[in-house]
TrEMBL record:
Alphabetical UniProt keywords: Acyltransferase, Amino-acid biosynthesis, Cytoplasm, Methionine biosynthesis, Transferase
Principal EC category: transferase
Protein name: Homoserine O-acetyltransferase
Pathway(s) the chain acts in: Amino-acid biosynthesis; L-methionine biosynthesis via de novo pathway; O-acetyl-L-homoserine from L-homoserine: step 1/1
Active site: C142, H235, E237
Residues binding substrate, per UniProt: K163, S192, R249
Designated gene of the protein: metA
Amino acid sequence: MPIKIPKLLPAREILEKENIFIMDEDRATTQDIRPLNILILNLMPEKEMEETQLLRHLGNTPLQVNVTFMRTATHQSKHTSPLHLDQFYTIFAEIKHKKFDGMIITGAPVEQYPFQKVDYWNELTEIMNWSKRNVTSTLHICWGAQAALFYHFGINKIPYPEKLSGVFTHSIYEPKEKLLRGFDDRFFAPHSRYTDLDRSSLDAHSEIKLLSGSEEAGPFILLANNGKQIMVTGHLEYDTGTLAQEYERDLKKGINPNLPKHYFPDDDPGKTPINTWRSHAHLLFSNWLNYYVYQATPYQWD
């Protein structure tokens, strides 16, 4: 089944070329079906890139999905045109009276700031508080995962001495958990962040289950309150070249970044990376939509 997106969204052309089944509003109105309503709070600076990456995975399931993109009202994006935001995004004040079957809160390049110093932190905490009553399951990605752990459970992040970037091997700790159905015992996933989580702080909360992690990259997939909150500390949604683009961006900024680990063949940035995580990205999103959204949400919200 398709995802329903605005007819003029730039991601549409890319997804159509990849044979992702999409549908615009005109055709969707003729379908006699209860679609899943998914809200995406996109905090990434390159919003159009993140839109395409997320829609690619949301459109790879048998479920019909309506997607609403939301931006912060208290922070103005510097990397996405105001026209694009006005045309395709809403703000919290315009949707807070609604119910959503699922929500995604993306990462953001603000990890090196204390949470309370982020200019939209108060707005984000209002949204996360609202999600507890108005969203069946929320999937938090990278900094969004750390923000959720801090807000819901008081677990703070730990700074790395330098940026963690690369594609790392992960192990499964809870093989019977539905979110991991179909996962290999060991699998790969990209990470790109400046902070980590303390395992003992996670273990102190019985309502949090650590499902997967990496010896090099730390805790990876966490589930809380029976799937009401799901936290993923890396970026399974990333395209093959996303880490390379971030590396080049950091070079131009004069940050002098380390080469992403286990990413470029022979550690040669002149060679094209090989995607080793795509299938597990599809599994993660399809399992989330099926088991924690579709099978858990009411057919009709009160």
